[in-house]
Specification:
single chain, two-stranded parallel sheet, globular, alpha/beta, Rossmann fold
Length: about 325
């Protein structure tokens, strides 16, 4: 793994927001495994209690149930914390199109409250989740920080605004912020049952049930699928990077794109299935292609992802077989 040898002070305490979610719970697990203290923060609006139940007996684990829209709770969560890993947000482009006001309140308002609480508490660094969707309609490949297009839905708009707040909180208030633009993260605990589930858990769930998945569009859309362990590495290296890295956002991916048709073929091969997909209409707000240039993250964060899509899919499928089995 690209982070197990990273060293923090033995008394370091991390705050993970959205800790009962897919990415948040994986971060909590990794930090506890490394021997650090973790305060977890979630309201279970999208996260699941089952994602954190295995941690509750660990004496280094602490949980706060609360909403990032409540400033007093954010202040309480940030108290005596060294590093904040802010993952709490509402995801899904289609859902954001249906509920733009809710997304503004949670993703923007909640994030600003967390940054303010972290500033007041004097945390060492605030590492937050952004998204590759901020590149919007830009046709440029690979995606390079600073070459964004127009966003195509409320969800990416909230992430773009978060990045601006991250820049301002560093410039104006000296809160050391690092933004991570995740590219199509996948892995264990990514919910296959949600109405807005991501493509890999949907495909795996359908194939394990011998059902035909729907591919939106012609299957030539491509994404830079990023295994969860690479994301954990980015978060922890973001905590330790030099100050010159702060106030910026970084592409976090593997740096390799895969079409939905190629992805589907890989999954069929790994699962030993021969099932033809159904091709449906394209989704509103979807970009056609996504591929990350990760050179900035390599240079300033020391990011060096070690899990490509093939290794990641093998590990993810092992987990889904147990979870859905």
């Amino acid at each position: 793994m690209g982070y197990e040898n990273l060293k923090f002070d033995s008394n370091t305490r991390f705050l993970v927001t959205g800790a009962a979610g897919f990415i948040g719970s994986n971060l909590v697990e990794a930090l506890l495994r490394m021997g650090y203290r973790v305060r977890a923060f979630d309201d279970f609006s999208t996260g699941k209690k089952e994602n954190i139940t295995s941690f509750t007996d660990n004496p280094r684990f602490e949980f706060i149930e609360g909403d990032i829209r409540d400033f007093e709770t954010c202040q309480m969560a940030c108290r005596d914390v060294d590093y904040v890993l802010h993952q709490a947000a509402l995801g899904s482009i289609p859902r954001s199109i249906k509920h733009p006001v809710l997304y503004e309140e949670v993703n923007i308002g909640g994030t600003v409250k967390m940054m303010q609480a972290a500033k007041e508490a004097g945390v060492k660094r605030f590492v937050y989740a952004s998204s590759s969707s901020v590149y919007g309609d830009s046709p440029i490949l690979p995606k390079v920080e600073g070459q964004e297009g127009k966003v195509l839905a409320p969800y990416p708009l909230t992430k773009a605004v978060n990045e601006e707040y991250g820049r301002l909180y560093y410039q104006l208030y000296d809160l050391e912020t690092i933004g991570l633009r995740y590219f199509n993260v996948f892995g264990k605990r990514q919910d296959p049952h949600s109405t807005y589930a991501a493509v890999i858990p949907i495909f795996v769930k359908k194939l394990l049930a011998d059902e035909r998945p729907v591919i939106n569009g012609d299957g030539n859309h491509s994404r830079d699928f990023t295994y969860i362990e690479n994301v954990i590495e980015a978060n922890l290296k973001g905590c330790l990077a030099s100050r010159e890295a702060c106030g910026e956002a970084y592409n976090i991916a593997y740096g390799q794109n895969t079409s939905l048709n190629q992805l589907y073929d890989k999954l069929c091969q790994l699962l030993g299935k021969d099932i033809k997909p159904i091709y449906g209409p394209e989704r509103l707000g979807d970009v056609k292609h996504s591929l990350a240039d990760i050179s900035k993250a390599r240079r300033l964060l020391g990011y060096a992802p070690s899990y490509d899509i093939d290794r990641g899919l093998e590990l993810a499928i092992d987990w889904y077989k147990m979870y859905l089995g």
